[in-house]
């Protein structure tokens, strides 16, 4: 039986990985929800759930420690490329990230990587503009206290 294959593409570091062990919990035309374990052992978290918001260019993940306690929400700004032949989704990390902590504190990460990627000719100016617009949309949603419209999609799968 064929199933959706999700690939993670990074510019920094240069990486293209099939997320072969991710479990797809839900798939619609608008989103994909997965459950996964880290690819390599980590000290800070062990597993999580991700929701790929296909129309918005975000991947929102709920991260958990080894003892099953919630760590934080991690939001990647991404670009999606779906290939019908082979039923595959390439998720390109557009470098900018947002963490939403349990207490509501928000931290924006890796903006400098956008500049580095452009300087090293890893991406176009258009891709940088796209990433910044998506980041702005996500931050406006968070600051308007509407992050639950995203997080609820994952929370409905957690028992």
Task: Give the key terms.
globular; alpha+beta; nine-stranded mixed β-sheet; single chain; FomD barrel-like fold; 9 strands; 159 residues
Structure description:
The longest helix has 19 residues, at 125-143. The two termini are 28 Å apart. The protein is α+β, with helices and mostly antiparallel strands and 159 residues long. It is globular and about 45 Å long. A hairpin with a 3-residue loop joins strand 3 (23-27) and strand 4. 23% of the residues lie in helices and 42% in strands. It has one domain: FomD-like (FomD barrel-like fold, Beta Barrel), CATH 2.40.380.10. The mean pLDDT is 95. Strands 1, 2, 3, 4, 5, 6, 7, 8 and 9 form a nine-stranded mixed β-sheet that branches.
| Whole-number count of domains | 1
Regarding CATH, which class? Mainly Beta
Output mean pLDDT.
95
Corresponding CATH superfamily: FomD-like
Q: What is the beta-strand fraction?
A: 35-45%
Q: Fill in the CATH topology.
A: FomD barrel-like fold
Biggest sheet architecture: 9 strands, mixed
Helix/sheet category: alpha+beta
Task: Please report the number of helical segments.
Answer: 3
Distance between the termini: 28 Å
CATH architecture: Beta Barrel
Shape: globular
SSE string? EEEEEEEEEHHH
Radius of gyration: 15 Å
Poorly predicted ranges: none
């Amino acid at each position: 039986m064929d199933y959706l294959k999700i690939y993670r593409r990074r510019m920094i570091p240069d990486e293209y990985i099939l997320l072969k062990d991710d479990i797809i919990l839900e798939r619609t035309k608008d989103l994909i929800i997965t459950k996964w374990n880290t690819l390599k052992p980590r000290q800070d978290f062990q597993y999580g759930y991700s929701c790929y918001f296909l129309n918005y260019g975000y991947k929102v993940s709920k991260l958990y420690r080894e003892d099953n306690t919630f760590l934080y929400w991690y939001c990647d700004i991404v670009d999606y490329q779906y290939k019908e032949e082979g039923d595959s989704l390439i998720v390109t990390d557009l470098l900018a990230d947002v963490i939403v902590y349990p207490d509501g504190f928000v931290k924006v990460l890796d903006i400098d990587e956008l500049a580095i990627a452009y300087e090293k000719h890893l991406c176009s100016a258009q891709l940088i503009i796209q990433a910044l617009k998506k980041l702005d949309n996500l931050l406006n949603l968070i600051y308007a206290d509407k992050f639950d419209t995203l997080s609820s999609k994952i929370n409905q799968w957690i028992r």
